[in-house]
Write a structure and sequence with these properties.
- The complex is a heterodimer of chains A (179) and B (216).
- With 179 residues, chain A is mostly helical.
- Chain A has 8 helices and 1 strand.
- The N and C termini of chain A lie far apart (43 Å).
- Chain B is an alpha+beta fold.
- Chain B folds into 3 domains: 40 residues, no CATH class; 38 residues, no CATH class; 101 residues, Rieske [2Fe-2S] iron-sulphur domain (Rieske Iron-sulfur Protein, 3-layer Sandwich).
- Chain B has a 4-stranded antiparallel sheet, with no helix packed on it.
- Chain B is globular, with a radius of gyration of 21 Å.
- Chains A and B meet through β1, α1, α2, α3 and α5 of A and α1, α2, α3, β1 and α4 of B.
- β1 of chain A pairs antiparallel with β1 of chain B.
């Protein structure tokens, strides 16, 4: 036996959280899942994967919470589940361990609806890059330029921009958002 | 064409910017970091995203169809961050009654939205009675072979949202987060009284391929 085991496993009685009932349980859960969806989308960058992962979170977490649980309680559980599901996603797709995804998975539970904060964070991150690296990522990701358009804008070739894009992404991956 | 890292990463970036799924290819640690960074940049370029109305409706149907488990252990609540609820000891939120006999509750199989059968290997690749972890899109499962048939259970613990692992010598699934164990059939072992693991649909085709019902 270890100290971490629930009371029931040690021969005692497990405490049970009985959460109150509310008529709008599904609506509350869906509003919380909107936060989860935004959280996941901001990390996987596409709708199809974000929907799959959000559905996994809902399937896993919702049946285990009594209908009508307070939003704050649901949120904590949903985000714990979302972090685990995201960890599994990156582990499966890229072979990345949770240790390598510490920043991605250890973010605080949001306390408000999605805002433009994520965009500002990215802009702060890009601001730390050299001019060329920042420019290529801004044009590609924030303005949606094609490689050819970026090359024309930066008076370069598609091949050179492709290499610069990879180097810029590698450099951005090593940066931390300034406080 | 795709042999160079800049070409592989560009293919992924182009897919992301067209709204396509992440399809990974090989690469070193720096390339993987570049890909996760690209995904984050693509994810924030249009600002915070909301669910599509049709996806929200599908989720609503799924939630309303979910069985009302109606309980969560205090430890699970604490670990999952339900500090406010669990911290209200002595208040109306916490009951000190015994945990219900969760192990006896019927557990619904996983029925994914946009479900499709995913090939996870030939039947010969599965050893008799040994759990093998597979992924079918968004569904993770342990598949067990019994003769020419297979069965499968979710690879996620029913107590905490953690990945299980198969302990061949002991013949059970072990949770990586706490000492919870499950049989190959998904039943909890020991005195925890945990809910069983969700079954996952699995089958063997006439061609001897094992398929699991997962997502696209």
């Amino acid at each position: 036996m270890t100290p971490d085991e629930p009371a029931a496993a040690r021969g005692g009685q497990a405490e049970v959280v009985q959460l109150p009932t509310a008529a709008r349980a599904t609506d509350i859960a869906l509003d919380e899942l909107e936060l989860v969806y935004a959280f996941i989308y901001a990390r996987v960058g596409n709708r199809a994967d974000a929907e799959d992962l959000t559905q996994q979170v809902a399937l896993k977490a919702i049946p285990r919470l009594r209908q009508g649980a307070p939003a704050s309680a649901i949120r904590g559980y949903l985000f714990a589940t979302a972090r685990s599901v995201l960890g599994g996603f990156w582990s499966t797709r890229l072979g990345l361990s949770e240790a390598e995804l510490r920043e991605d998975l250890a973010l605080a539970v949001p306390t408000s609806p999605p805002s433009e904060e994520g965009v500002e964070t990215v802009q702060k991150l890009l601001a730390q890059l050299s001019d060329n690296y920042r420019r290529v990522l801004e044009l590609r990701f924030l303005h949606g330029y094609s490689l050819k358009e970026v090359a024309a804008e930066m008076h370069s070739t598609v091949g050179a921009i492709k290499v610069m894009q990879l180097r810029a992404l590698r450099a951005a991956a090593k940066l931390r958002v300034p406080e | 064409m795709n042999g160079k890292p800049e070409n592989r990463v560009e293919k992924i970036v182009a897919d992301l910017l067209r709204g396509r799924r992440l399809k990974m290819r090989g690469g070193d640690a720096e390339e993987k970091e570049a890909i996760t960074t690209a995904a984050r940049l693509a994810g924030t370029r249009q600002g915070p995203q909301r669910m599509r109305p049709e996806f929200r409706k599908r989720l609503a149907r799924e939630l309303e169809a979910a069985p009302d488990a109606g309980w969560i252990t205090r430890r699970a609540a604490l670990v999952a961050g339900l500090g406010l609820a669990a911290g209200a000891a002595g208040g109306g939120f916490l009951s000190r009654a015994l945990e219900p006999n969760a192990a006896a509750r019927p557990v619904a199989p996983i029925e994914p939205l946009s479900a499709r059968w995913v090939d996870v290997g030939g039947i010969d690749e599965f050893s008799e009675g040994e759990g093998r972890r597979v992924t079918a899109g968004g569904v993770g499962a342990f598949v067990f072979r019994r003769g020419d048939a297979v069965s499968a259970v979710s690879s996620i613990c029913s107590h905490l949202p953690c990945e299980l692992s198969w302990k061949s010598g002991d013949g059970h699934l072990l949770c990586s987060c706490h000492p919870a164990r499950f049989t190959a059939e998904g039943k909890a072992i020991g005195s925890y009284g945990l809910t069983a693991l969700n079954p996952v649909h699995a089958r063997v085709t006439a061609a001897g391929r094992v398929e699991v019902l997962g997502t696209e």
